[in-house]
Amino acid sequence: MDVLDLARxxxxxxxxxxxxxxxxxxxxxxxxxxxxxxxxxTGDRKxxxxxxxxGKLLLINFAMGVVTGIVQEFQFGMTWSAxxxxxGDVFGAPLAMEGLVAFFVESTFLGLWIFGWDxxxxxxxxxxxxxxxxxxxxxxxFILAANSWMQHPVGVELVxxxxxxxxxxxxxxxxxxxxxxxxxxxxxxxxxxxxxxxxAAWQLWRGNADEPVWRSSVKLGTWVGVVAFTxxxxxxxxxxKLMFEQQPMKMAAAEALCHxxxxxxxxxxxxxxxxxxxxxxxxxxxxxxxxxFLAHNDFSTEVKGIDDLVPMYQxxxxxxxxxDERLGELSGKPIxxxxxxxxxxxxxxxxxxxxxxxxxxxxxxxWLTRGGRTPRGRWFRWLALGSIATPFLGNSFxxxxxxxxxxxxxxxPNPTGVDGVWMFTARAVSNxxxxxxxxxxxxxxxxxxxxxxxxxxxxxRYVRGGVAGVxxxxxxxxxxxxxxxxxxxxxxxxDRAGSxDRAGSxDGVGSGDGAGPGAKAGSGDEADDVLSFAx
Length: 535
Ligand code: HEM
Prior knowledge:
It is a single chain. This protein is mostly helical and 535 residues long. It has one domain (3-255, 313-468). Helices cover 63% and strands 4% of the residues. It has helices at 3-42, 45-79, 81-115, 122-151, 168-172, 175-205, 211-246, 248-255, 290-296, 306-317, 341-368, 378-404, 425-428, 434-465, 527-531; strands at 156-159, 162-165, 266-271, 283-287, 409-411, 423-424. The strands form three sheets. A two-stranded antiparallel ribbon has the order 1-2. It has a two-stranded antiparallel ribbon with strand order 3-4. Strands 5-6 form a two-stranded antiparallel ribbon. Strand 1 and strand 2 form a beta hairpin. It is globular and about 70 Å long. The chain binds protoporphyrin IX containing FE (HEM). Protoporphyrin IX containing FE (HEM) is lined by residues 151, 180, 183-184, 187, 190, 229, 232-233, 236-237, 239-240, 243, 351-352, 355, 391, 394-395, 398-399, 402, 405. Residues 151, 180, 183-184, 187, 190, 229, 232-233, 236-237, 239-240, 243, 351-352, 355, 391, 394-395, 398-399, 402, 405 line the site of protoporphyrin IX containing FE. Residues 470-535 are annotated as: Disordered. This is Cytochrome d ubiquinol oxidase subunit I. The chain crosses the membrane at residues 20-41, 53-71, 91-115, 127-150, 185-205, 217-235, 346-368, 380-401, 437-459. It is a multi-pass membrane protein. It is found in: Cell membrane.
């Protein structure tokens, strides 16, 4: 493999890994803020237990996200130095804003939230978690503004062969980021929602104490998941329309559309090798005229196929790479303007498919656990735990599609923008040897593997600990420490949810269903006792 391939593998591995943490932090932080708000408003100890339990998992995940995010920044300078020089003048502003928001606002308020449980007035403490979660969303906006600029460069002029920023406002209001931002945030909610549903359903299955906590978490997760998937479909449709105008080759690659069609049908599923240049052997299940609608809101728009687009790209951006030793094996070779079609075609479908499965399983779990029921078969455990992975996979395929679909460009030319503001990926890499890149690729993959192990270990440990592990006065009993399904309590009897206005009254959470004798937790802790517990 040459430097370019190794650098791309390194970028893909580190980025997909980093983006497992990011959406969970964004989605979960807002849900935890909502849970804490419910507790402050109602005083119901169930909401405090939810805040503490999910908040603990949020913190573990946040820490891993920061560690892997910092590596991202280093690798740009290390492996993609030509790219960093090219985009430096544009990215300086949004990335500085991201740094300020992430390091000052996000970290400060997170620290205040962690250590402020027994020190800050309740409402001030609540404001901290809101400030933290809103800052994490703001920092995502700035990163996406930078990424969207690479998909659709705006707000620049070309000076000495490099783009120079002349309007940060244009970069921050790029229509590409205005569509990508809500899509990514809905994706983050889909991840957090499935996390809640999967873990809470598993706790119910094993007969853990604190049943009201898990039932409310399943409900919250399911409805957030359904709204998130609806939001993803609406914002994804907007992105498709922009893609049609801004990156026609990516549009054709999403469909593996070889020949121009008018009206164009949407391929739901294909049998055969979609990478074949002549496409003749591919059998596809299609919905007539749907692609025209996705592209342009009507059922007759012509969508250009790869065969017609390639000559257009060749005319505008050249047929061969320049002869330049920095281009390695590609020096002087013909430019391949067609992305890797099986990746783009299936990536697009897997993004949508995994998102749909995630929302669907949420609804199924909600129905299966209705009215205090809990299925006891092992299949339910696998359904619950397996569904956690689905939106993570959906997000990963979304990014893989987005980034692979713009190849061979790293900065895609804007069809109506300034001439010359684009960059081939082959030009973007550092002047390193394959051995150097291979070393960092292996090292980072190993380090990330260890970090993944640490994250899974910690999350597993705190999940198994249940509410009792994070909130004193809860019942650790029930078969929660074991793995099998508990015998279950009497669902819905008694004051399980804790209706009193004293926070931490102990009713409900840890009422000891399953094997435990029950009701042990109702020791009537005062709110101050609860608040005195910091993470
Ligand atoms: C339901 C229908 C959906 C449609 C029509 C859709 C459409 C799109 C399109 C067109 C893009 C590429 C934008 C570009 O490269 O310019 C994209 C990217 C992406 N999608 Fe989806 N999507 C859908 C569902 C999902 C789901 C369910 C998830 C996650 C669970 C998801 C996560 C992502 C991510 C992370 C990206 C990359 C970031 C971005 O450009 O926003 N999408 N989607």
